[in-house]
Amino acid sequence: xxxxxxxxxxxxxxxxxxxxxxxxxxxxxxxxxxxxxxxxxxxxxxxxxxxxxxxxxxxxxxxxxxxxxxxxxxxxxxxxxxxxxxxxxxxxxxxxxxxxxxxxxxxxxxxxxxxxxxxxxxxxxxxxxxxxxxxxxxxxx
Length: 141
Fold this sequence. Notes:
Layout (H helix, E strand, L loop, with lengths): L3 H15 L6 H11 L7 H9 L6 H11 L3 H6 L2 H16 L2 H12 L2 H22 L8
Helix pairs in contact: 2-3
């Protein structure tokens, strides 16, 4: 299974190729250092990015993203997490109507001790509903 650095390296190489650059350390070092105003990266340092041995800091990631015309989130995390978040957000948007939004607004405006009580009541109802939904079938003896 790939770790986060290896996934980053794969996305970096793919982004370089898509932008028309060979995913080689010398190319990455030259192009990155032309655009980055901090301490220049060494050939060894960018090679480690391409091999998945390390990942750049946020400021360097932003420089890479701007150069390759991708989002920093795409380079660091890929598209999978964004799709999962969008799917969950869509589920909420579909399930929650005007009345539920009013209830959530009222809940948010409650003092913390009262919010705690309301949460406990909701969790109790959810547990009862889940328990009632599971029918216990006893085998015949």
